[in-house]
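Running this now, will post back.
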Amino acid sequence: MFVSRNRAMALVSLICLVSGCGSRSPLDRVLEGGAGPVDADAPEEFTSTDSGLRYRVLRKGTGESPLPRDTVTVRFAGWLDSGRQFDSTYHQIEPLEIYLPSSIPAMREGLQHVSEGGMIVLDVPAKLGYGPAGHSDVVPPNSDLNFLVELIGVQHALARVEPGQADPDAPKEFTVTESGLRHRILRPGNDQKPTLEDQVSVHYRGSLMDGRVFDSSYFRGEPLTVTVKNVIDGWGEGLTLIGEGGMIELVIPSKLGYGEEGYPPRVPANADLHFLVELQEILSE
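Update: finished.
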């Protein structure tokens, strides 16, 4: 189809009005809005990895690089391919702390290419981002993403620990409660059981029903301290069934877990969950 030159120019003007031709890119806006300086010799082109991630190191940094199990402190901004920014820490006073095993795959992989004090741009295919689930109402399903990340600090993970032993006479079958929680008490512990008001120290491993682990204190090497009433319902009910030193296996229906919202990106909507939980100590009564 042919159009006149005047009409073609009008179409270009309209497209530029909508898409922002000649305006600053999302990356430019972030760099001008609070991100630190870029190295003079920073590459103009992206490097592609085997996973499909593309990255550019804008500032190398001089400290340590994180490993996949570490916790990092970062400042970042994220935007969709359309240019719409969906998240940013640059309006906050404090940077954000991220436990890498709980982050999206692109963040775990990408930050290994930069050191403390460094800055990196990540071009993230949907499969390395939030995937088919998207993220809340700000990232649509199957969205490719872009991030600028400044690595402020690295906290290396402690040595991984292994779960304790189950009792030899632990039941083989699950018991089902009125709520729908399925459980096996692998080690009952002592007679001191927590209430919903108690604060407890626990080790745990959580996985989806297909076996994929989405969170684990064993991986981090240190137990978690929580108040029983503040955890998901399946956990809260399960913890009250064992005493200090006890261990329980839980199969938690979605309604007693994260429900229809899930816990993106780690837990999809309406997902049943499998947990191994050890009650280390009751810290308050």
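The radius of gyration is 24 Å. More later if anyone needs it.
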